[in-house]
Structure formats: structure tokens, C-alpha cells
Amino acid sequence: MPVMVRNKQVILKDYVSGFPKETDMYMTKSSIELQVPKGSNGVLLKNLYLSCDPYMRPRMTNIKGSYVESFKPGMPISGYGVAKVLDSENPEFKKGDLVWGMTGWEEYSLVTAPQLFKIQHTDVPLSYYTGILGKLFVCSNLCMPGMTAYAGFYEVCSPKQGECVFISAASGAVGQLVGQFAKLLGCYVVGSAGSKDKIDLLKNKFGFDEAFNYKEEPDLNEALKRYFPEGIDIYFENVGGKMLDAVLLNMKIHGRIAVCGMISQYNLDRPEGVHNLMYLVTKRVRMEGFLVRDYYHLYPKFLEMIIPHIKEGKIVYVEDMAEGLESAPATLIGLFSGRNVGKQVVAVAPE
After folding, report:
1. Does residue 113 have a pLDDT over 80?
2. Closest listed residue to residue 12, CA positions, set 80, 67, 70
3. 3-class SS at 268?
4. CA–CA gap between residue 25 and residue 74 (Å, rounded)
5. Superkingdom, according to UniProt (predicted)?
6. 140: helix, strand or coil
7. Strand, coil or helix: 282
8. Contact 329, 259 (CB under 8 A)
9. Do 262 and 239 form a contact (C-beta atoms < 8 A)?
10. Phi and psi, residue 49, nearest 5°
11. Which helix (H) or strand (E) holds 304?
């Protein structure tokens, strides 16, 4: 007889307008059979780690034509995760495999159309596959922090040694890596974040030259002039709004802006306007948005670079680990108010 077990799940109650709340999600318990139906292509997963990412906020809204598919109310939230295969009818996976990819916010997931990768390097923390080591799906609009930082910095920004680099939301999953990539190249690097602990992290752990708390700066333009008296060559944009407006005033001629995200705008019913766009013209600045799926082909090259750097300690990666599936709703909401320090991960079960 197949074994039936309890399966805790995080469900989206309804589509969200404005700033999301914990009560927009709820926990439920269902039952699941620990056996994949014979003849199917399915894989049964025991989820170990779940990734919390800014792109999940748009998925909580019913927006047509978005770059990412919306969640379905009444169904488990989905996202990237690390899992162990418990049973498989798919020839590419077998029982005991460690995998990462798209899974549900639940203890166990039966994946009928697997978007999964086998984990090859088990001598680094498995949770890193929710972030720094994560690969993207060629057919997907979603992205992972490591490849996002790599593609956005090296491919979009075309950096040169000695250039001046500014990163907003710099202590987050992407920002912390962009800053370290820039330092490895010999750039001058400044980051902004929203707390003293994050500023200390940027300067003392990630090796940024300078960092400032944007919440303590009454005039962002003046703050940037203080740290970049000669101007900014490269801006890695994660925030948008007032920060972008201030950066535009401080870009050097022929500067580059890689637009990775605009987290300050995700919870606004009416996004803020940007007023200094004319500086793109007068300073001949190139500002480019990007989706990391366009750089899928570079993943082997990225892995070849990043794995040795991690093992040698040249790249430091900080995770903010929440324990237990029950903590997932509060953890996700905290991401949008800057509560996390580093890449936000939920540990669902022991490895």
C-alpha cells in the first residue's frame, strides 16, 4: 500500500493590492501519496529549502502581460527551491537525487512537468542553489541571483578596472555579489542599504569601499556627490524611484545603468515618476533593462568562475535563513520591507 503523509502548504488567499500582508497567505494541511503514479513523467520531491525573491511580489497580483506568471489564489505558492527526490517516473531523475528548480511552498511536491536540475556540486551548501549557484530555465522569465549579478555586471555594464560603481539594495542576494565582482575587477564600489547592520556587512564582510544608509540621508543627491565627487561610471539598479532620480544627476558621461529591478515600486498602486531622464541624453548614458534568461548560454562560464572563488573564499555569500515552512509568509513579507540581511531562504526540512 502506498504511504500517505500530511503535507503542510502555504496558500495565496487572493490577489494583492498595495503592500502585501501575512494574512494574504494561509497555512493548510493536505495529504499526499509518497508514490508517483505509474507511467507518468512525474517526480515526487521532499522540499529542503525555498527561495524568497522580489519577483514573487508581482506574482501576487493579477497583471496581464507581466514578465512573470501570476500565482493562482487558493493554490500553493510556487518558487525556486532545493529538494530531494523521493520517487520518480521520469528517466532523468531517480530516488535520492538532490535537485533544484521550480517547486511548491509545501513539504512535499508532486511535479508532473519537471523544471529541475540535478545538483552536481555537493561540497558547497545546498541552499546556495536557491541563489548564488542557481541556474535559470531557458523558457522562463524568472532568474537567480548569481547569474543575474554576473550577467548584469559583466555583460550589461561592460566594466573596466578602476571604474566607480554604485549598487542600490546592495546587501541583497544580487547586490552583494555585484559589489564583490566589481572589487575583484579593481573598481571603487559603494553600496546603499537600509540599516546599520547591513552597512557594516557591506564594508566589513563584502569588502565595499564605502556604504551608506539611504534612510538617514535627507538628500540622496548630496549623499552620492559625497561618495562620488567625480561621478558614477556604473549604477546597478535594484530600487528605482528617488534613488534612480538622484543617480541620474551623478552619472559620468558615457556611464552605464543596468536595471535589474525596482523594489521600491512593487507595492505602489501608482508607481513614482522619474524626473531626471534628460540626463541620459546630455551625459550620453546607456540605461538597459535585462532579463537573465537572455544570458542562459553563459551559465557554464559563470559556474567555472564562481565555484573556485567560493571555495577559495574570494566570494562571500550571506544568507538570511528562516526556519520552518510556518515562517514562510512572514519571511516573504519581510523581504519587501528590507527585513532580510542577505539572500532570504526558508529551511523546510533537514538535509
Report:
1. no
2. 70
3. coil
4. 9
5. Eukaryota
6. coil
7. helix
8. no
9. yes
10. -135, 140
11. helix 299-312
